[in-house]
Amino acid sequence: MAAQCATDTLNNPLWQYALEVYGRPGVAPELLRLQDEQNCDVLWLLTALWLGERGITLTPEDLSLSRHDACRHDRILPLRAQRRACDKTSDPEAYEALKKAELNAEQQGLALLYQAFSAREADGGNAVANLALLTPETQILLELIRN
Question: 75-90 burial, b if ≥16 CB within 10 A, otherwise e?
Answer without folding.
Answer: bbeebbebbeebeeee
